[in-house]
Amino acid sequence: MHSLKQIKQWVEQILNLFNPEGRGFDSFLDKVKEIVESNENRRLPKLPKGTRDFAKEQMAVREKAFSIIQNVFKRHGATALDTPVFELRETLMGKYGEDSKLVYDIADQGGELCSLRYDLTVPFARYVAMNGITSFKRYQIAKVYRRDNPSKGRYREFYQCDFDIAGLFEPMGPDFEIVKILTELLDELEIGDYEVKLNHRKLLDGMLEICGVPPEKFRTICSSIDKLDKQSFEQVKKEMVEEKGLSSEIADRIGNFVKEKGAPLELLSKLRQEGSEFLDNQSSREALDELSIMFEALERSKCSHRIVFDLSLARGLDYYTGVIFEAVCIGAEVGSIGAGGRYDNLIGMFGTKQVPAVGMSLGIERVFNIMEELNEKQKQVIRPTETQVLVSIMVDNKLAEAAGLVSQLWDAKINAEYLVSKRKEKHFNRAKESGIPWMVMVGEKELSGGFVTLKKLEKGSEEKEDQTCSRDSFVGELLKLLSC
Amino acid sequence: MHSLKQIKQWVEQILNLFNPEGRGFDSFLDKVKEIVESNENRRLPKLPKGTRDFAKEQMAVREKAFSIIQNVFKRHGATALDTPVFELRETLMGKYGEDSKLVYDIADQGGELCSLRYDLTVPFARYVAMNGITSFKRYQIAKVYRRDNPSKGRYREFYQCDFDIAGLFEPMGPDFEIVKILTELLDELEIGDYEVKLNHRKLLDGMLEICGVPPEKFRTICSSIDKLDKQSFEQVKKEMVEEKGLSSEIADRIGNFVKEKGAPLELLSKLRQEGSEFLDNQSSREALDELSIMFEALERSKCSHRIVFDLSLARGLDYYTGVIFEAVCIGAEVGSIGAGGRYDNLIGMFGTKQVPAVGMSLGIERVFNIMEELNEKQKQVIRPTETQVLVSIMVDNKLAEAAGLVSQLWDAKINAEYLVSKRKEKHFNRAKESGIPWMVMVGEKELSGGFVTLKKLEKGSEEKEDQTCSRDSFVGELLKLLSC
């Protein structure tokens, strides 16, 4: 052990070596204190990885999007469903295949084992099964949780906007309506040009059967096909042959089929031409008959031009049983912005009777990004608040004065804030920063005279003069001015 | 061990004893099968204890309440904040005292330790500290999580509606506004008569000092006082004397003070009368000065009649430093329906600089219960959907026909559903069940004639005749009819 004195001497020697001005040990202590203090200050609270806060302008963009989405959902006669953020672990088990490892578990603190929801589809299916429901059109806008890798830019908490129709209806009616809703959403959110790729699981199954793929390999070959939007056919073929044991000949036959894409009714009629192999296969024949009904409905509803019938669309999730679809932005690198399909066996997995269902999920985080980028490009200023009037008391210590005036505005349901300060510029800065269009000004003159002065801050086509009002009439006057 | 044959004989004998019709062993097996199957069906999925789903009518009530609340919050210039449902565990630690045991932890699956939020105040404080914010008016409507006892009727997941103002403003300005907001919320939610009890932590501290309570016992005696709304003074006195070691004399002095309650300005002037012990105590003198400014403002804003200045209000949470308040329904057994107060030291607990703050939280679950009860009493029928038009195709297999017509309505932003069925009563039942006011009917006649028939279903003062329209004009006609 060394004495403090000895250490002090060594530190002084070292410091003198590196610091020719040599202010010695006290200066060193000051520096240490400085570093410690700045670290103290830097010990800020943090967010969990992969999560975010949203405030002010960002929140305004989100609220606008949610309101558009909710209006579209309600327009189709759906009601909202709100489910708990966590479910019994057994409810989620066996639903997500390999992705189950991404499910967040709640700690076992005694009692039931629970997990955070991974999507909104399984809670919906659980709700329908639990309540013995046979028909339900519901929407849900809520956050879901996935222990994904934040370093890849993936979030661990993010919103999904889901619309599902469960129950027996007019054949292909719900399937048509779900795709129509997706186009309405993307149209009204104004996020640019897009297309909806569409295919049918039974058509894929038929296609694989025709190509000679053994049935037990249908699902795994589907996941290979699903990669065709990111990989070349040569890469996918390699996977099918080397990893999944198909013959090169079978893989090439698949390659020929999945090239097919085009306008719905056009490609459909090509696939149904005399001599088409699809007509000899029961599964694909059924699929083509269903698609025929659906495409006719989409054509009549005037959204057919948004749809691309694409035999290479396969979708990852195992539980789809019929129509599948995926919306992508044209010319943007954001990938899928919404997807869904028919899943007739999921609700029955809860041990109750089968209820057929079809649904879609909007990839709202990508939509937000696009909306924020567009706002930036168009240099749109987004007001985070909707305050219409600032009550400006330009005399100090007059809270009661402010309270009396601003409460009259609040009671008249006018969005208003107040400020008490004799520094005039504070008032104008505040109004300008928040984009507040009107001021109710009260200075010494107004105070003694018992009136207020109304000032318009936004530059209109005609410059407005300030206008004085009695304390009894200014609310009525402002209501008139605000409704102009 | 007995042979199967022997068991079969015994069972037959027993069955014959209880079942004189005696259909023997096969009938027994059938019964067993029936029981097993019905149990199979009863193995329904479940919700975690203490959680609920909300759908349809209940959801409509909630949405209405949220919309009222959000409008009030926005009227006061607040912006929404959205924070993750879980926080780093260290963020929540040391904030909730004894209640920390109610915090839900996320399982340790590698990575950071996280917990579900327990309230919205700590995430707000974390956000303000983390972003170095000095001034922020925010609201948040979101679910919080507590491992409370569901057998006591407590929920483990429930909504809170919080409004907080952080930053330095006009003295007592934010305190006044927060209480005003609480009265606006309760007025506009129309949940019956209520009062807001109000007190000041520094006044309580001064009072305890005057009574001779040692400072280290202030907080624990406060929690005893806080029980006075549920227990008699004798019970509370017993706790203060026997459990917390006060002398009987000191407890009685406290008893005299906490009896005081009344109209704000009235009781205030009594407590400030010459000779009042409160004037000699620094802490209570400061509190009375602050309350004076606040009560004047509340008086001028015309909500003073809702406030009861009550020296027995103490509030459980440790972090309050100034004004505290709690709203209760008059004549109802629901307890607190909203509460809050000033907490000037919480944000600084994150190692950054202090930012003073005051806020409130609305106990929205109780509000929902009251609203639902009122709806029931008034026999109000709540429509879960807002569908205005049902497109009724009364010919089978005509999805495309329906799609063409209903899409025109959707594109005109009319809330519409469709039904394809030749069974007339199905259409009318559907419209009646959902309370849909208009039908666009298409039967064989309309189909061949190329027109539609509009039918009004709600009985108005004048009975309306059905009216026919061309396929090009029915949307315009409906828009006119709906705006009447």
Automatic annotation (TrEMBL), chains A, B:
<keyword id="KW-0030">Aminoacyl-tRNA synthetase</keyword>
<feature type="binding site">
    <location>
        <position position="146"/>
    </location>
    <ligand>
        <name>L-histidine</name>
    </ligand>
</feature>
<keyword id="KW-0436">Ligase</keyword>
<comment type="similarity">
    <text>Belongs to the class-II aminoacyl-tRNA synthetase family.</text>
</comment>
<feature type="binding site">
    <location>
        <begin position="319"/>
        <end position="320"/>
    </location>
    <ligand>
        <name>L-histidine</name>
    </ligand>
</feature>
<dbReference type="InterPro" id="IPR015807">
    <property type="entry name" value="His-tRNA-ligase"/>
</dbReference>
<dbReference type="GO" id="GO:0003723">
    <property type="term" value="F:RNA binding"/>
</dbReference>
<dbReference type="GO" id="GO:0004821">
    <property type="term" value="F:histidine-tRNA ligase activity"/>
</dbReference>
<dbReference type="InterPro" id="IPR033656">
    <property type="entry name" value="HisRS_anticodon"/>
</dbReference>
<dbReference type="InterPro" id="IPR045864">
    <property type="entry name" value="aa-tRNA-synth_II/BPL/LPL"/>
</dbReference>
<dbReference type="InterPro" id="IPR036621">
    <property type="entry name" value="Anticodon-bd_dom_sf"/>
</dbReference>
<dbReference type="Pfam" id="PF13393">
    <property type="entry name" value="tRNA-synt_His"/>
</dbReference>
<feature type="binding site">
    <location>
        <position position="160"/>
    </location>
    <ligand>
        <name>L-histidine</name>
    </ligand>
</feature>
<dbReference type="InterPro" id="IPR004154">
    <property type="entry name" value="Anticodon-bd"/>
</dbReference>
<dbReference type="GO" id="GO:0005739">
    <property type="term" value="C:mitochondrion"/>
</dbReference>
<dbReference type="GO" id="GO:0005524">
    <property type="term" value="F:ATP binding"/>
</dbReference>
<feature type="domain" description="Aminoacyl-transfer RNA synthetases class-II family profile">
    <location>
        <begin position="26"/>
        <end position="384"/>
    </location>
</feature>
<dbReference type="Pfam" id="PF03129">
    <property type="entry name" value="HGTP_anticodon"/>
</dbReference>
<dbReference type="InterPro" id="IPR004516">
    <property type="entry name" value="HisRS/HisZ"/>
</dbReference>
<feature type="binding site">
    <location>
        <begin position="119"/>
        <end position="121"/>
    </location>
    <ligand>
        <name>L-histidine</name>
    </ligand>
</feature>
<keyword id="KW-0648">Protein biosynthesis</keyword>
<protein>
    <recommendedName>
        <fullName>Histidine--tRNA ligase, cytoplasmic</fullName>
        <ecNumber>6.1.1.21</ecNumber>
    </recommendedName>
</protein>
<dbReference type="GO" id="GO:0006427">
    <property type="term" value="P:histidyl-tRNA aminoacylation"/>
</dbReference>
<dbReference type="GO" id="GO:0005829">
    <property type="term" value="C:cytosol"/>
</dbReference>
<dbReference type="InterPro" id="IPR006195">
    <property type="entry name" value="aa-tRNA-synth_II"/>
</dbReference>
<dbReference type="InterPro" id="IPR041715">
    <property type="entry name" value="HisRS-like_core"/>
</dbReference>
<keyword id="KW-0547">Nucleotide-binding</keyword>
<keyword id="KW-0067">ATP-binding</keyword>
<feature type="binding site">
    <location>
        <position position="164"/>
    </location>
    <ligand>
        <name>L-histidine</name>
    </ligand>
</feature>
<dbReference type="GO" id="GO:0032543">
    <property type="term" value="P:mitochondrial translation"/>
</dbReference>
<feature type="binding site">
    <location>
        <position position="315"/>
    </location>
    <ligand>
        <name>L-histidine</name>
    </ligand>
</feature>
